Amino acid sequence: MSYLVDTSALVRIFRNEVDESWQEAVDRGLVAICDPVLTEALALADAKQFERVERHLLERYPWVPVPDDAWEIVATVRRKLAVRSMHQALSVADYLVVATGIRRNLTILHLDGDFETAAECVPIVRQERIGLVD
Prior knowledge:
It is built from 7 helices and 4 strands, in the order βααβααααβαβ. It is of the alpha/beta class.
């Protein structure tokens, strides 16, 4: 696997709003999911569809755990962002996605400028903005 999907990209993939090469990457198991993204995605699911959506996501995307030292990584990233007054740009979920991406050596796949901000301040953060189909 190469990528860790953020909710912003996951929603676009689900809606088929991205180039089909991303669907193929998902099919090949190259795009993983972690608990913060799964939790955000399931918050969007209808209660009647909750279990089906959860099962679908866990079958389609390899699951990677948030690392045990996530909060230490979050603190380091937050401090580096604070130096540039950018520490408020990321949500708690985004910080945990960043920590997971760093520790698991995955590129964060997103449609959210906050990850670009994080990478600007913390060069070890790898990120790629997913392109939308016109």
